[in-house]
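Q: Sequence in, structure out?
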Amino acid sequence: MFLVYFAIIILIPLWAQMKVKSAYRKYSQIPASSGLTGAQVARKILDNNGLYHVKVEETHGILSDHYDPRTKTVRLSSNNYHGTSVAGAAVAAHEVGHALQDAQDYAFLRFRHALVPVANLGSNLSWILILIGILAGISGFLLLGIVCMAAAVLFQIVTLPVEFNASSRAMDEIVAAGIIRNDEERETRKVLDAAALTYVAAALVAVMELVRLILMYTGMASEEE
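A: Exactly. Output:
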């Protein structure tokens, strides 16, 4: 039973990663009709929304694209920064979606930012406490570990509306700005949906693991009574 469970929590993230890489690889070979690079797409959407102060920079790595709220910078991986593909436009627009959330004080984004230190602490402490609880047979330590892990799981769950909203904003912006044609919307959405799968998979696995530990704790606590 445990082997099946661990196979599932390993396979789900792997499947999601394969989906996003496959979609990105496919649509990074298809040029966008606008001929704009990812950097130009990001700059255009930012300027259309009056976010002239937000910078667009190139960063190393593959699919390392992100928005940094501390420096107000959209960072795009080299392929997306310089490339003119449908995938590059989708990724650039998605990261700008986070910049729009930041500028408009999107509640879930603010909540996620507030959770970062708590989630990091919980993630680092949880397994230490959980292992002590399991190995020593002390349910109290296991419970503390579960509470710490719950903070990290909450972060994963809150990430979902943040990412889905950024993708929704991305689609609205690139369509309104004429960056993609109507016949390119389907391909763009596939890239965004595939990327969202990775966050869904991570949240699902985190919740499954938390539930398993809670069941383990209830069993241990009942034995101590």
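The mean pLDDT is 93.
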